[in-house]
Specification:
The complex is a heterodimer of chains A (110) and B (859). In chain A, helix 1 packs across helix 2. Chain A is elongated. Chain A is built from four helices and three strands. Chain A is mainly alpha-helical and 110 residues long. In chain B, the strands form three sheets. In chain B, strands 13, 14, 15, 16, 17, 18 and 19 form a seven-stranded mixed β-sheet that branches. In chain B, strands 2-3-8-5-7-6 form a six-stranded mixed beta barrel. Chain B has a four-stranded antiparallel β-sheet with strand order 12-20-11-21. In chain B, strand 2 and strand 3 form a beta hairpin. The chains are: A mainly alpha (110), B alpha+beta (859). The interface between A and B is medium-sized, with 17 and 20 residues.
């Protein structure tokens, strides 16, 4: 499954702290990346569709408090497997960065 | 908002129904935040940029899934897959091949300018429907008829070409200067004839083939000189490769000119006439006017033009009725195959759908939407059609050249048919639609029906209505194969009957070759005689040669050369029926062809101009003209001289095995006037020998070269080949039809087998119950056989009726075999019954071996 597509990784990140519905995921990603990454709705739901098949996320069973709930919306939560995959991707990326540093590469330009 | 919802329709249904609302909600949220027209516009643009690629990717994903699923499913059912692909391949391939050829010969317009306006015009007499025009009558028609914007004439002939290399015999056409422009063709380079070319008549236009093969595609050919029949000609043009008029085989064109004397002899019919109808004029009106002109000519020249009228038909209708019928029959046969292929595919898919009912119900129960199920089935059908279609192209490409042999040589086009892509597409589309139709219905039903019920019914469900449909399909298959069996059976019988006809001579061991002597060099029969004597004495001296002779024409190779017979002033008009087929021959002609000499003697070396003019006649001539007396010694007039009968020989099938021939008259080669009857000048050499052709040929070339170094040899073939040529088109058609019939029988067998195995497996429990209740296995077998027999009967009865109708339609091809020929019908029914029996053997056996305990336990 690795490397994860960036959109998938971001969606997993968005769901680690709480269950969210689709538009909330888009907004979360946008806020966290300071507007760098704007997921389009189509990309989001195609990713979610695949992630559901792969078992990375599920539709949330518990819904938020009725006052906050929007009946039309579906909420997604990350699975244990989803967390494991996100961790594995992190390890892969960290390892990659470490290797690059060992060669003397730095992100900063001189 | 509405715009966005509409946009979402680009997504597959499954995706839209799952996430459509979510997408709309997300869009609505952003919409609510957007301020100003610019922001709104940007949003819409972003929405389009988002939806279009994602929707396409989603469709591709589903397609990939379906393809993977389909390939896996087909791999798991290889028998089904292979059968289906083969069925489709045969249907598509055979159809494409047959239609390509038929379309080429029957439907496609000729490669000329406005070909619908081009007509062929003939003189018509009570005994000949299509008689060539005489120059006088042609000139009258040209002058009087207003229905034609132009009328041109041509005459096919063959000339000895001496240009570069070996002298060569080529087919040519002499044409009036207006003929090629009238047809509406342009030369590839150079120019066409103008009226000025007819003055000295020494210009020639080459066919593309001749230019390529004989002149090495020399681009500087214009203005070059070559010699035709000893006369010099200048090349003025080369035609494009697609042009071949009046036939594919014509290699060059020269002009024809008429002397005043030519117009006087209205009995000299040799002009074939092509006209272009004036705008708005119908064939009927042109015919009416041509008849009026002919009637006028009859009043003017009552004797020679007696009873002469006209025939007019479209140029595209040329080509013999028989080759037309051959092609129509072929098309009918392939339609049968297409029908069979569709029926079989439908049956296969229905069976597959029934056996997958549970699987589909299961998938539906697990949440697969109807749209996804239908989409899956469509993919599967299309994959089958595609695979079959590819195999079908292979079948078509392989079989078109074989079928092309059925195209008549007389068609005025130079190219041969190739595989027609439109036809291929048509056949593939038919198959794909069949596949879709019969594939989708079960899927739709599965999507709609109560899935639980299908699951509960388990393996017992037979699907009564579907079963009826399949039975009907099998009956149709049986019917189509019976039609094909009857048609090809009738043709086999006709073929056998024709092959059994005695030609009147023995073809085996005879080699023939043609040395057409050019005129006027050989106008004098005494000069010709020197040539004949030199060649014949040389050939007769060769080892292995028992006899050799020259004659005007070979039997079957040339059926014409008919001359009126005049006896004691019983002078009949040239339209009467007293005619004989006239041949000039040297001694040994009868011995060489083993035509039996019944009485009297052969023509002799001494039968020259100084002696009594003699003739040898055939048996039928003697009994017809001298029924009550001895024909030997009788006198009659033929070929411009009165002749005395000196011998009687057996009759020969001059016109071929399938036609009635006129009585034959053979006269000595020396007894003809200088420059007269040039058409009959002997050109065909026949040699009876035990030596192989390969050993004879170099010797023959040497001998002819010694006699005349400029003289080419052409048409080298054995007499066996000449006779085989008679039945070759028939044989080709028979092979095709026979092959199709076998395919049909096979398909019908497969269909019956498939249906019965399926029913038996579906009825295992029922059979088990029957056996548990005491039914013998013999009874069970009888039950299955009864079903097979019912299906066969349902197909055979209309099949026989249709086969009879097909036989009536092609009666002209049947050489007198009746369409209701009992032997053929019985054989067809027998073969069909055999195929049924073989097809149901395995299912019946399986039914008889059902273990009642096991069957009931499964319940």
């Amino acid at each position: 499954m690795l490397p994860l597509p960036p959109a998938t990784f971001h969606i997993l990140m968005a769901l680690t702290d709480e269950d969210r519905h689709g538009y909330a995921i888009i907004q979360d990603v946008m806020v966290r990346t300071e507007g760098e990454l704007r997921l389009s709705a189509g990309t989001l739901y195609r990713s979610i569709q695949r992630m559901l098949e792969q078992g990375l996320v599920v539709e949330a069973r518990t819904r938020p408090a009725p006052a906050l709930d929007d009946q039309r919306r579906r909420y997604y939560s990350i699975t244990a497997f989803g967390i494991a995959v996100a961790r594995a991707e992190m390890r892969r990326l960290t390892q990659l960065v470490r290797l690059a540093r060992a060669r003397g590469l730095t992100p900063e330009t001189i | 908002m509405r715009f966005y919802r509409a946009l979402l329709h680009l997504y597959p249904v499954s995706f839209r129904s799952e996430y459509g609302d979510e997408l709309v909600a997300a869009f609505a949220a952003r919409h609510a935040n957007a301020r100003g027209a610019g922001a709104l516009l940007a949003m819409f643009a972003a929405a389009i940029a988002d939806v279009v690629p994602n929707a396409a990717a989603e469709h591709a994903d589903i397609l990939r899934q379906d393809l993977r699923y389909t390939l896996r499913a087909l791999r798991n059912a290889p028998a089904f897959a292979i059968t289906a692909v083969l069925v489709v391949a045969l249907g598509v391939g055979a159809n494409t091949a047959a239609f390509s050829v038929a379309d080429f010969a029957l439907i496609r317009p000729l490669p000329f300018f406005q070909p619908g306006q081009l007509v062929k015009v003939w003189e018509r007499t009570p005994s000949y429907g299509n008689l060539e025009f005489s120059p006088g009558n042609f000139r009258d028609l040209q002058a009087a008829a207003k229905s034609f914007s132009a009328l041109g004439a041509y005459s096919g002939t063959a000339v000895n070409l001496v240009g570069s290399g070996e002298p060569m015999r080529v087919e040519s056409a002499t044409v009036t200067a207006n003929l090629l422009p009238l047809i509406g063709v342009q030369p590839q380079f150079g120019r066409l004839f103008t009226a000025a070319d007819t003055v000295d008549g020494q210009t020639v236009i080459l066919s593309n083939t001749l230019w390529q093969t004989h002149f090495g595609a020399d681009e500087n050919i214009l203005g070059k000189r070559l010699t035709l029949d000893g006369k010099p000609y200048t090349v003025i043009g080369v035609m494009p490769p697609s042009f071949g008029f009046p036939a594919r085989t014509v290699a060059l064109w020269t002009t024809m000119a008429f002397a005043t004397a030519d117009f006087d002899d209205r009995g000299n019919n040799y002009l074939k006439v092509v006209g272009r109808l004036a705008p708005g004029v119908t064939v009927e009106r042109a015919l009416g006017e041509a008849n009026l002109v002919a009637a006028q000519a009859e009043r003017q020249f009552p004797k020679v033009n007696e009873h002469i009228r006209a025939t007019v038909y479209k140029l595209s209708d040329e080509g013999s009725e028989r080759s037309r019928l051959l092609l129509v029959a072929l098309c009918g046969a392939t339609l049968c195959i297409l029908l069979l292929a569709c029926a079989n595919l439908a049956s296969l898919l229905l069976a597959r759908a029934s056996s997958r009912e549970r699987e589909i119900a299961l998938r539906a129960a697990l949440g697969a939407g109807r749209e996804r199920l239908v989409r899956q089935v469509v993919t599967e059908s299309l994959v089958l059609a595609l695979m079959g279609g590819i195999a079908g192209v292979v079948v078509a490409v392989v079989s078109v050249p074989a079928l092309a042999r059925l195209v008549p040589d007389s068609l005025p086009v130079a190219q041969l048919p190739s595989v027609d892509l439109r036809v291929l597409f048509f056949a593939a589309a038919t198959i794909a639609l069949t596949g879709l139709g019969f594939g989708i219905v079960p899927a739709l039903r599965a999507g709609r029906a109560n899935a639980m019920q299908a699951l509960r019914d388990g393996a017992r469900a037979g699907g009564g209505r579907k079963q009826h449909t399949r039975s009907a399909l099998v009956a149709v298959e049986v019917m189509a194969s019976v039609v094909l069996l009857v048609s090809s059976g009738l043709l086999v019988r006709a073929m056998l009957r024709i092959q059994a006809v005695d030609p009147g001579f023995q073809s085996s061991g005879v080699l023939t070759a043609r040395t057409a002597l050019p005129l006027p060099k050989y106008d004098d029969p005494r000069v010709r005689e020197q040539f004949f004597n030199h060649v014949l004495s040389g050939v007769r001296a060769l080892p292995g040669v028992t006899s050799a002779a020259y004659a005007s024409f070979l039997p079957m190779a040339m059926g014409g050369g008919i001359w009126p017979v005049i006896i004691d002033g019983r002078n009949l008009s040239r339209n009467g029926s007293d005619k004989a087929s006239l041949r000039f021959a040297t001694p040994q002609y009868f011995a060489t062809l083993r035509i039996p000499l019944l009485r009297g003697r052969d023509v002799a070396e001494t039968d020259d101009a100084a002696h009594v003019y003699t003739a040898v006649v055939s048996q039928s001539f003697a009994t017809r003209y001298f029924p009550s007396q001895d024909a030997i010694g009788q006198r009659f007039q033929i070929g411009l001289h009165e002749r005395t009968i000196v011998g009687i020989v057996g009759d020969v099938r001059v016109r071929g095995l399938e036609k009635e021939s006129e009585p034959q008259v053979y006269v000595p080669t020396q007894q003809v006037d200088v420059g007269s009857l040039v058409f009959y000048t002997p050109k065909d050499l026949v040699i009876r020998s035990t030596a192989p052709t390969a050993a004879l040929l170099p010797e023959l070339r040497r001998i002819v070269r010694e006699a005349d170094p400029q003289q080419p040899i052409s048409d080298i073939r054995t007499m066996d080949q000449v006779v085989a040529g008679e039945t070759a088109p028939r044989l080709a058609q028979l092979r095709v039809l026979g092959m199709l019939a076998i395919v049909a029988l096979l398909l019908a067998g497969v269909g019956i087998h498939g249906l019965l195995s399926f029913t038996v497996s579906r009825r295992t429990q029922e059979i088990g119950v029957r056996m548990a209740l005491g039914a013998e296995s013999g009874e069970i077998v009888r039950m299955v056989l009864r079903e097979a027999l019912t299906l066969t009967t349902l197909g055979v009865v209309p099949g026989i009726a249709l086969g009879y109708a097909a036989g009536r339609a092609m009666q002209a091809l049947l050489a007198g075999i009746r369409p209701a020929d009992p032997l053929t019908l019985a054989t067809a029914v027998g073969l069909c019954a055999a195929a049924t029996l073989i097809g149901c053997a395995r299912p019946a056996l399986r039914a008889s071996r059902v273990d009642p305990i096991a069957a009931l336990r499964a319940e």
